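Hello Y.,

Per our agreement to keep a running log of every chain we model this quarter, I'm adding this entry. I've kept the format consistent with earlier entries: sequence first, then predicted structure.
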Amino acid sequence: LRALGALLVPRTSAAIQDAVVSHLARQRGREVAGVLLANWKSHGPARRTQILSVLATRKDWIEILLDQMESGNVVSADIDVAMRQRLAARKEPELRSRLEKQLALASTADRQEVLAQFGAAATMPGDLQRGVTLFDTKCGKCHKIGEKGHEVGPNLVSLTNKTPQALLAAILDPSQAVEPKYLNYTVITVGGLTYTGMLASETGNSITLLGPESKQQVILRNEVEDMQSSGKSMMPDGFEKELTIKDCADIMAFVSGVRADGTPSSGD
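Predicted structure for the entry above:
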């Protein structure tokens, strides 16, 4: 088990890692779950989905997963909606209460305080045209609307919930409900270089990170010394230091009032 677990690292090809997880899925014993989770922070979304699918098959492996969540090694943002639903369907009372607690998405205390401070932005009339300018300078490096910006994070035209409260939370507490594919990763190479970004793709011999302005960094697996997920959105906390309450209201006015082609719905 230790030898197999040692292969579940970024330097190992994706095909071999696939085979290791598939083999471990056929084993028994609580220690298997520990091996699968040992290098959790170094895995991308696809590998995490594969590992979680295995862990979800056995009650004792889910217990180990919950232990890891309670210790902070695995965070709720690491688990996608489909897997949340699968885990939440467990009938065992002793698992259900722990799962409900750990799968709940909650803001940290400091983010809640910031949201309270900027709460007036949700009811303040926004200047749509000023919002266009602010989007270009503050948001366009990682978000796209129509022809504006770069599609690193979610395309904002496709947002289903554009209420002021939802948009304000997305700006000031971006990690509250982040999808696993938008988590931030840090890769350190054997040469001591450090790269950060969203894990855009993996091949048998390389890893590609996607950064602001859609800039890609391809790193060979044999050059990877360490790879870790922060468990948080690539969009950082602390945006409130660059924006005023009025700025937030203006940006939200633009995003909520934009047409499908990215142009304002009122005025040119």
